[in-house]
Amino acid sequence: MFKKITSNRDPKDTVFSEIKKEFGPYFQKAGAFLKCCAERYPVFLFWMMVINITLSVILVATRYYPKPDAKKSAIEKSEVSSGIDQLLAASHQLKATLDLRKEVDSLFHLKQLSKVDSAKLLADLDSLQHLQTKLKSKP
What pTM was computed for the model? Predict the structure, then answer.
């Protein structure tokens, strides 16, 4: 299962070096063409860069950013708060379930139950069953 894998590839060969070998001539031709254009038309390239920078500044300065809608943020807040309320309710129900189980277990360990203990046990079992059906029914 943990057998060493051996390879006959040269350790100096990397993905970048292989890509360079394969596509190097194309990048060299494109670089030579761009260098030729830059040497032939330097003033044109300068003014194109100035125009692009100016347009970028104008677009950033005049871009309309809509303000957050108060209704939308209120809806999002209510969704978050309702989710937190659901979590809190579920945690309270789980805590009540754990408390009831402890009480039922302590009553089961008694050798003899009095009338009060029997009534308490039945009430606790009913409450426990009710809480468990509530917890199971929630998604």
Answer: 0.39
Q: What residues have CB less than 8 Å from 62, skipping those under 6 apart?
A: none
Q: Which of 90, 83, 84, 118 is nearest to 104 (CA)?
A: 118
pLDDT by residue (tens digit) across 70-122? 666 666 666 667 777 777 887 888 888 888 888 888 888 888 888 888 888 88
Structurally, the chain folds into a number of domains equal to 2
Q: How far is CA 103 from the centre of its chain?
A: 40
The answer to whether residue 86 sits within a structural domain is: yes
Q: Give CA–CA dist 111/123, Å, rounded.
A: 19
Q: What is the pLDDT of residues 8-43, one digit of tens each?
A: 878 788 888 899 999 999 999 999 999 999 999 999
Q: 80 and 56, same structural domain?
A: no
| C-alpha to C-alpha distance for 119 and 3, rounded to whole angstroms | 67
State which residues form the domain around 112.
70-137
Distances (CA, A) of 4 to 1, 7, 10: 9, 10, 17
Cβ-contact 93, 131 below 8 angstroms: yes
